[in-house]
Design goal:
This protein is an all-beta fold and 347 residues long. It has two helices and 17 strands.
Length: 347
């Protein structure tokens, strides 16, 4: 559910100054995870900084509620092994957080078309400072490079490299809705939305991270009019605090054992009287191998423009060669081949 009212003025005071206000109320249901309800407003201003560059400054105030948390996240074993998960899920805060943040950014763009670009570049640097006025404190650094190479009037290559780093400060922890996940039609096309990220070794639940790196490449061929055929390759990974990006990641085997209790035994009556002590399960994690850390997807996409709704529609056939350890939204292992329908563009 998404309600939004936005007002934007691209030429304020008859000058190339952008100004806008956006008021919104949204509800997002993340399958097998939680429901996020967000209400708030954002004010944005932008100034030119050269022929192709602009500087933006935005302020956003949001009230966020997390509810309907999957009971698997509340497993005592999971909460015990992940010390900050209870705070991340806002269990002790009634599921509510307030976010007040300032977001300066710099954008350089020479893209030739907004819907089907085939030449030019777009470079973006962003910073989020969340703190005063809210009870959530963090800093986010983000960068994105998009470059298009036009070979012929009908063919072009698009490349995107994107990275993000987020870190809380003060005494607050990073809430689950601010953690980084990737996967889906706008990042790694063959994987389910938000399915790629650090996972709990025992339950397999994805917990999200604080940094990511993402790579996308699209070779586009104009078929006819508004119809495009694309060959794509996507790759990315997410890491949490204290973890480094790497080419390989460990494969961990988890074993839970129930100890045998000593018994009190009376030989005169040949009867077990009682068990001594309390049963405590022991969980061990053993590295049994390594697999590719970058999750990858490649395939073909048919993209066509729908003038009635003014957005591209997409039919995606994906092959996922590196998918080890990634579960889909039904908590099943990601399939080798997937087919999806989507709206918009990957980048």
């Amino acid at each position: 559910r998404n309600y939004e009212v936005a007002i934007t003025e691209p030429f304020l005071f008859n000058r190339p100054i952008t100004a806008g206000v956006n008021v919104f109320a949204r509800q997002l249901n993340y399958i097998n995870e939680f429901t996020q309800e967000t209400t708030g407003a954002t004010a944005t201003a932008g100034l030119p900084a050269g022929a192709w560059n602009r500087i933006y400054l935005a302020y956003s105030y949001q009230r966020v509620k997390v509810s309907n948390v999957n009971s698997a996240y509340l497993d005592p074993r999971l909460l015990e092994q992940n010390l900050y998960l209870k705070d991340s899920l806002l269990i002790n805060e009634g599921g509510r957080r307030t976010v007040s943040k300032i977001s300066p950014s710099f954008v350089s763009s020479t893209i030739n078309e907004p819907i089907f670009p085939s030449a030019g570049h777009k470079y973006t640097l962003g910073l989020d400072l969340a703190g005063p006025g809210g009870n959530t404190k963090y800093t986010t650094f983000s960068g994105e490079i998009i470059q298009y190479f036009k070979f012929t009037p009908r063919t072009s290559l698009g490349i995107r490299v994107q990275s993000q780093y987020i870190r809380p400060f003060g005494t607050t922890t990073l809430p689950i809705f601010e953690k980084i996940f990737i996967g889906g039609e706008y990042s790694i096309r063959g994987f389910d939305l938000r399915s790629v990220g650090p996972r709990d070794a025992t339950t397999g639940l994805v917990l999200g991270g604080n940094k990511n790196v993402l790579f996308n490449a699209e070779y586009m061929v104009v078929v006819a009019g508004p119809v495009r055929m694309l060959a794509f390759f996507d790759a990315g990974q997410v890491r949490d605090v204290g973890e480094r990006f790497a080419w390989k990641e460990p494969v961990i085997k988890t074993v839970t054992t129930q100890p045998t209790l000593p018994l009190l035994y009376d030989p005169t009556v040949l009867q077990i009287l009682s068990a001594v002590g309390a049963a405590t399960a022991t969980t061990t994690h053993t590295v049994i191998g390594h697999r590719d850390a970058f999750k990858t997807s490649t395939g073909l996409e048919l993209r066509f423009f729908m003038p009635v709704v003014n957005v591209p529609f997409r039919l995606i056939a994906a092959f996922n060669p590196s998918r080890g350890g990634v579960l889909d939204n039904n908590l099943q292992f990601t399939k080798r081949f997937t087919f999806r329908f989507a709206v918009g563009t990957t980048f």
